[in-house]
Design goal:
The complex is a heterodimer of chains A (348) and B (383). Chain A has 348 residues and is α/β, with parallel strands linked by helices. Chain A folds into two domains: 231 residues, 3-Layer(aba) Sandwich (Rossmann fold); 88 residues, no CATH class. Chain A is built from eleven helices and twelve strands. In chain A, α3 packs parallel to α5. Chain A is globular. Chain B folds into three domains: 184 residues, P-loop containing nucleotide triphosphate hydrolases (Rossmann fold, 3-Layer(aba) Sandwich); 76 residues, no CATH class; 85 residues, no CATH class. Chain B has an eight-stranded mixed β-sheet, sandwiched between helices. In chain B, β1 and β2 form a beta hairpin. In chain B, α4 crosses α8 and α5 packs across α8. The interface between A and B is large, with 38 and 44 residues.
Chain lengths: 348, 383
């Protein structure tokens, strides 16, 4: 599988200014050294609790936030067919447009109500990104927009309407239409179904799957809802407090989780299957603040299996076979520890 | 198990500029003592309107038009059946918080950002159990260990004697206006604060002494929701209504809160009415489930029955469209959209989207009929 985007040692620190001279006294360490590879054509799910930095990762790739340090390598194939690897971090929007890659990295936001300008007509909202790339005549633009609306399941009669005249699910479809308007290679989906109803969620997820097959796009699906990500992604990365703790194929992650945090997340999902209910690992306390993350492994204050080494040494993300990566000092013993401490086996 | 609250044929309408929104269409439901009842449904089906009609806090232009809400209230050891829709506003104010409590979705909106946590939790004690607290303070004053200065002690004894019979007496209100005598309720507030610390501690909040002095912005989301639950459970209500209480929280925090509610059910509360759109939460915590669609109840039954053998076509479609742990196949979405309740479909409100629709469904609205032990369904195709 080819790589499309590589994140190498990505940092994003938001400075906190204080004191008399307003110098930097502390920083919110939203991303603290992320290494992630996104393969072409896959849907990578990025899960974690609120405050762990998943939205920041997505926005850093699309350049809505400037990364403090690190590299984001985008494998670009331009119109002539030439392949090149471009580091997106030092580029500005203008330079990206010159290189022709600005339209290839797009994003769909969480709240469909606030992500569209309520004073703009639908045809202008969807035409906005297209206008940045090419100059089309109004008839060409209209036919292109109508085709886009068809792809997402809405009709051409909606062109002269405003966003507030649509339901939540329809607005999210419009946001998706706006994101695919420039023929992107890569779309970041930031919790696209969290603000929607359960039945509409199914429609949107099916639409996203269809579009991926039809247009050959790569997705980064950011969410905190594990069952949704199980349905739509092929690979999942779990984040905790600015660091990636586990990456695995979906099936492997659910059947054989290796990091204690992943275990806790999986056991916390409410299960509708009344017969097969297993005991829960309920974590104590809340997520610590990213202002002063704990030393060593970030998870050690809440980890039921922490040892001395966890408090001083930061674990590295290592391969345990089958493409599964885990950052835990005790990864070989975790299965046995779970059985001893909680009395159930991890394999479901 | 005996009934705690019974709703019969409840009708609520909203008179808006666009027309009359028929939000609730003759809902009948029963919650038994010591059980958890889950109410599921999509957005806009009327779950929040239903619970607000029970507590009579429906916002205008909503009007409760008909039906009965029979609440079995314990009064001086005996049980009285009261129709909440016929009572005065003052009676309802005495019920809300002490007999029926409610917690909402957004803890940020439920807590006042400029008042300390201790003040906010003591509010429910000061409103509902003031007389009891006055009696306790009176006992303390009469005991030989008390060493307050004699004239002040007599004054305090007088005020607390008045307070233990009627906490809203005119005399006490008058004392609040006179500067020298304003401090009579200092002991009362201290007692309320002590009880607040106790109840916050019961909810496993770390360091409750420090928490009562802090403000809502010092706490995280899960903590704030626990404080809201503490406020609701302060006076040992018989019924706790949770309106999407865990929807905004992370999965791990939601697991903590649900475990907490399960624990408290045995000690403090009698029954819980849980509203949610998450079927997993319902499966984990509830004993009985009611499924609502567009203002009517489709199916009511025990949780095992509903999840293993759903009978109503809407329930079946809902279970198929939700990503579940064991779900391997494609998610099937329900065709069409939720109807506009200004002009709801005639007869059964689900008929435009139903796969088993018949002629009768378009003309008559089906009633809840029994199809199994404790399992009722409102559908012509099933009965």
């Amino acid at each position: 599988m080819e790589k499309l985007i590589e994140l190498k040692n990505l940092y994003k620190h938001y400075p906190i200014l204080g004191g008399i001279l307003r110098h930097q006294i502390n920083a919110v360490k939203a991303l603290d050294g992320i290494d992630l590879d996104i393969m072409k054509g896959e849907c990578l799910g990025l899960v974690g609790e609120s405050g762990c930095g998943k939205t920041t990762t997505g926005k850093a790739i699309v350049k809505l936030h400037e990364a403090t340090k690190g590299e984001i390598l985008f494998h670009n194939k331009n119109k002539a067919g030439k392949e090149s690897v471009i580091d997106v971090v030092p580029l500005t929007n203008r330079k990206m447009k010159q290189k022709g890659i600005r339209g290839k990295l797009q994003m769909v936001f969480q709240d469909p109500t606030t992500s569209m300008n309520p004073r703009m007509l639908i045809k202008n909202i969807i035409a906005e990104p297209i206008n940045e790339q090419v100059k089309l005549s109004s008839r060409e633009m209209e036919s292109r927009i109508k085709k886009l609306l068809d792809t997402v399941g809405l009709g051409g009669q909606h062109l002269l309407r405003y966003p507030h005249e649509f339901s939540g699910g329809q607005r999210q479809r419009l946001a998706i239409a706006r994101a695919i308007a420039t023929n992107p290679d890569f779309i970041v989906l930031d919790e696209p179904t969290s603000a929607l109803d359960v039945s509409v969620q199914a429609q949107i997820l099916n639409l996203l799957k269809e579009l991926q097959d039809k247009l050959g796009m790569t997705y980064l699906f950011v969410t905190h809802h594990l069952l949704v990500v199980k349905y739509i992604s092929s690979r999942i990365a779990v984040m905790y407090l600015g660091k990636i703790v586990e990456v695995a194929q979906t099936k492997d992650l659910f059947e054989n989780p290796m990091h204690p945090y992943t275990l806790a997340l999986l056991s916390a999902i409410p299960n509708t299957n009344i017969d097969k209910r297993s005991k829960r690992i309920v974590l104590e306390g809340d997520v610590p603040s990213p202002l002063n993350p704990p030393a060593g492994c970030r998870f050690h204050p809440r980890c039921p299996f922490a040892i001395d080494r966890c408090r001083t040494e930061i674990p590295k993300l290592e391969d345990v076979g089958n493409g599964q990566l885990t950052a835990c000092h005790r990864k070989e013993d975790v299965a046995k520890l779970v059985k001893d401490t909680f009395g159930f086996s991890m394999k479901r | 198990m005996s009934t705690l609250i019974e709703i019969k044929d409840l009708v609520t309408n909203f008179y808006t500029y666009e027309g009359v929104v028929k939000a609730l269409n003759k809902i009948s439901l029963e919650v038994k003592k010591g059980s958890t009842f889950g109410l599921v449904g999509e957005s806009g089906c009327g779950k929040s309107v239903l619970v607000r009609s029970i507590m009579r806090i429906v916002q205008s232009p909503g009007v409760i038009e008909g039906g009965q809400v029979l609440f079995h209230k314990k009064k001086n050891g005996k049980e009285v059946v009261v129709d909440l829709l016929q009572q005065s506003e003052e009676y309802m104010r005495s019920i809300r918080g002490s007999d029926i409590s409610m917690i909402f979705q957004e803890p940020n909106a439920a807590l006042n950002p400029i008042l300390s946590i201790g003040y906010q939790v003591s509010e429910s004690f000061l409103f509902h159990v003031a007389e009891e607290m006055c009696e306790k303070i009176l006992d303390e004053l009469n005991s030989p260990n008390d060493h307050t200065f004699f004239p002040i002690k007599q004054f305090l004894k007088y005020t607390y004697r008045v307070g233990s019979s009627d906490s809203k007496a005119f005399v006490l209100k008058l004392f609040k206006k006179i500067p020298f005598l304003k401090k009579w309720d200092k002991r009362l507030k201290k007692e309320a604060l002590k009880r607040s610390v106790e109840i916050i501690d019961k909810l496993h909040v770390p360091d409750p002494e420090q928490t009562v002095k802090s403000y809502p912005h010092n706490l995280s989301g899960g903590m704030k929701q626990r404080i809201v639950i503490a406020m609701a459970l302060a006076c040992n209500p018989d019924l706790l209504i949770a309106d999407e209480a865990t929807s905004n929280l992370d999965v791990t925090v939601q697991a903590q809160i649900l475990e907490l509610l399960n624990e408290l059910k045995k000690e403090v509360i009698s029954s819980i009415l849980l509203i949610t759109h998450d079927l997993g939460v319902v499966a984990e915590t509830c004993e009985r489930v009611g499924v609502m669609y567009a203002g009517s109840l489709c199916e009511v039954g025990d949780v095992n029955e509903i999840f293993k053998d759903p009978k109503h076509p809407y329930t079946k479609a809902l279970l198929r469209s939700v990503p579940l742990f064991s779900n391997e196949g494609k998610l099937e979405s329900i065709e069409g959209t939720v109807p506009n309740l200004v002009n709801p479909p005639t007869g059964c409100r689900f008929h435009p989207r139903c796969s088993l629709v018949m002629e009768q469904c378009k003309q008559e609205a089906p009633e809840l009929k029994e199809v199994g032990p404790n399992h009722t369904v409102a559908c012509f195709a099933v009965n």
